[in-house]
Every structure is written in structure tokens, then in C-alpha cells.
Specification:
This protein is an alpha/beta fold. The protein contains 16 helices and twelve strands.
Length: 381
């Protein structure tokens, strides 16, 4: 463990507090909620189409709702169903129970990985831009960070990240990447892990698979099984995206028993509410419903991309529940203009000076949003 538990708890308090005030870490990329505003009126929330935080626009299905309502009756007891969820996840991924660790969303596990594997002499390596929880946590704890810019196609620069990770404590690899939506074939990621293992055998590679269920390519598969047997690989996943449970805050990590043991020291060790555990178990059991949402997302994503392309704007290939568009103007201006018309889009990313990240809503929401996008982008930048 890179830090003592007492130092970790004290130092991480400011990070956790910022996350509570700023919204879910994996939804808002560590920034404030609702496009930078701290509060929202009920009327504004009711009328605003939310395409800004990569949430699933569909409410949980009947089986999930039923499971949650039944679990409420056990709210006076400490959770007895944690082991059930761990076992179900282990079975789903073909690993042992000892290889699974639950967290309050994958964001908690990403934050916890920093004090577990990074120290003053072994930095964090991460892409730029990428999902920022690991980077923000390392900076908050005063730990070194090496950021590697994405390549010309906005994919994580795999060779450059491999080079930068020599001697690092942790390499964070978000695949598909947020906010770009781009993906590397798994065989290429595994080859990188193999090479890095020869150069820097103590470096842990954390692969964030938050959006894995949206990927349709046969060249992509989960690294969960490898992580279970390889001490140098750790995989994080979440129920927030494809399963539509962002508000329930359920995530998990899969890794070798020794790697999981190290991570467990800096987490809440999977102490989740009975309702959240029940929702996750129901989502795992209702594969058909989750699959319907994935198909709907990917179909609507293709239509949304074509809307921008027909207007002459570049859309980058995405394997997630959002698209990244070069709107050919400052993203702050595009964001503000859309919000005035009732559409919330993603916040700006400093390394993407003319790009906007747009989450995928329902077909009806995207149809309304398309009219707004056309009106806003019709004006000269």
C-alpha cells in the first residue's frame, strides 16, 4: 500500500467531498453537476433534456423496480445480499469470488486505486483527455501524474502510454475512452500489457470497461478473466451505463486476489445499500431488458451522428453512449446556446478546444435535440 490508511482517509476526504458536491464522479468527470451549476430548480429539471452526463435515458425495468421495492422492506437490516451479488458477478465473468470487489460506483474504485498503487516515486500514467477521476485523485493527494495526449484520431496513444508507464505505479486505460468514445482492440491492449510487463513488471494496468457493453466489434472483449489471474491487470466496471443504474451507485473491480486485497484496503469494501444490491442482481438476471437498452442506444447514436455529419460536422467513431462532435467553435458557447433552448450537453474539455460531448437520449429526446443543434450550429461560429 502506497499510503498508510490514516493518511489516505485524511487526504482523500477533500476528494470525496468534492465528488459529493460535484455529482457522481463517473457521470460528471469529477466536475460540478448540471453543466457547471450547483443547483437546479424543479421546473428546470423537468423541462431540460439531459445529454450531458452519459446517463442511460431509460428508467430501470419492471423486474428491477420490483426488486428494489422488496429490498426496502429490509432497510432496517444491514445488507445480507452482498455475497449474492459478488457470487453472481463472479459467475458472469467466469472468475472466483475472491477476484471481485464491489464499490459505490466504479468511481470509488478508481479513486481508491491511486493510494493503493501510486506513490511519490511511481506515478500515475493516464491519457489526455480521458475519464479524470484517477488523475484528479492523484493531484489531490500530491502524487505524480504523467498525461499522454491522444493521437490524431483521438484514440489513446497506446505506444506513447506504454513508454510513459515504464516505472509507473499505475497505468489507467479507459477503453472505450471517455470523452472521445474511441476504442482499442483488446488484442492490442493485451500485447501492450505483455510488453510493459517485461519493461516494468511492478506497474499495474487498470482497464476501465465502463462502456464495454456498448461495443459491437468482435475485436473487443473484457479483460476480466485475465485480470483474475494476472497481478498486473485490474478491470473496473459499472452498472451506471448499460444497466441504467447510475443513481444506485454500483460498481465493481475484477483482479487477482492479491491485487484485490491491496485495493480493498482503500475502499469501503463493497458496503452498499440493500436496494442497490437488489437492483444490480435484478439487472444481471434481466439480460433481455438490458440488451434492449444497448440496442436502442446504439441505433439512436448512429442517427445522432448522421445528423451532425449531414450538417458538415465531424463526428468521431464512438463505442459508448455518447458521441464527440467537432462543433467548430468554443464548446462553452455551444453548451450555453443549447442550454438556453432546453438541451444540456457535456462540459468543455481543455484539450479539445472545439469539441462537444453529447450523451445519447431516447429517440424522442434526440429528435428534439437535433432541431436545437441545427438552429445553434446554423449560426456562424
Amino acid at each position: 500500500m502506497a499510503l498508510t490508511r490514516r493518511r489516505f482517509v485524511g487526504a482523500l476526504g477533500s476528494v470525496a467531498g468534492a465528488s459529493v458536491l460535484g455529482g457522481p464522479a463517473h457521470a460528471a468527470q469529477g466536475g460540478p453537476p448540471f453543466g457547471g451549476r450547483g443547483t437546479m430548480s424543479a421546473a428546470e429539471a423537468a423541462n431540460l433534456i439531459r445529454l450531458d452526463q452519459n446517463e442511460n435515458p431509460y428508467a430501470p425495468g419492471p423486474s428491477i423496480t420490483k426488486a428494489v421495492m422488496e429490498a426496502v422492506a429490509q432497510g432496517n437490516r444491514y445488507p445480507r445480499n452482498i455475497a449474492d451479488l459478488v457470487g453472481a458477478l463472479a459467475k458472469s465473468h467466469g472468475v472466483a469470488r475472491e477476484n471481485v470487489l464491489l464499490g459505490a460506483g466504479s468511481g470509488e474504485l478508481l479513486r481508491s486505486a491511486i493510494p493503493a498503487f501510486v506513490d511519490s516515486k511511481r506515478p500515475l500514467v493516464a491519457g489526455l483527455p480521458t475519464f479524470e477521476t484517477c488523475t484528479r485523485t492523484a493531484v489531490s493527494l500530491g502524487l505524480p501524474v504523467r498525461e499522454v495526449a491522444v493521437d490524431a484520431s483521438l484514440r489513446l496513444d497506446l505506444p506513447a502510454m506504454e513508454d510513459a508507464a515504464a516505472g509507473a505505479g499505475l497505468l489507467f486505460f479507459c477503453n472505450p475512452n471517455n470523452p472521445t468514445g474511441t476504442t482499442w482492440p483488446t488484442k492490442d491492449v493485451e500485447a501492450m500489457i505483455d510488453r510493459l510487463g517485461q519493461r516494468s513488471p511492478e506497474t499495474v494496468v487498470l482497464v476501465d470497461e465502463a462502456y464495454a457493453q456498448f461495443v459491437e466489434s468482435r475485436n473487443y472483449w473484457s479483460l476480466a478473466e485475465r485480470a483474475a489471474r494476472d497481478r498486473r491487470v485490474l478491470v473496473t466496471r459499472t452498472f451506471s451505463k448499460a444497466c441504467g443504474l447510475a443513481g444506485m451507485r454500483v460498481g465493481y473491480a475484477i483482479g487477482h486476489k492479491d491485487t484485490i486485497a491491496a485495493l480493498r484496503l482503500t475502499t469501503t469494501s463493497g458496503f452498499l445499500p440493500v436496494t442497490s444490491i437488489a437492483a444490480a442482481l435484478a439487472a444481471l438476471a434481466d439480460e433481455a431488458f438490458v440488451r434492449q437498452q444497448i440496442v436502442a442506444n446504439n441505433q439512436t447514436r448512429a442517427i445522432a451522428a448522421k445528423t451532425f455529419e449531414d450538417m458538415g460536422f465531424k463526428v468521431f467513431p464512438s463505442d459508448a453512449n455518447f458521441i464527440l462532435v467537432d462543433v467548430q467553435r468554443k464548446p462553452e458557447e455551444f453548451q450555453a446556446a443549447c442550454r438556453e433552448r432546453g438541451i444540456a450537453v457535456g462540459r468543455p474539455f481543455p484539450s479539445l478546444p472545439t469539441h462537444s460531448r453529447i450523451s445519447i437520449g431516447t429517440a424522442e429526446e434526440m429528435q428534439k435535440a437535433a432541431a436545437v443543434f441545427k438552429a445553434v450550429l446554423a449560426k456562424k461560429a
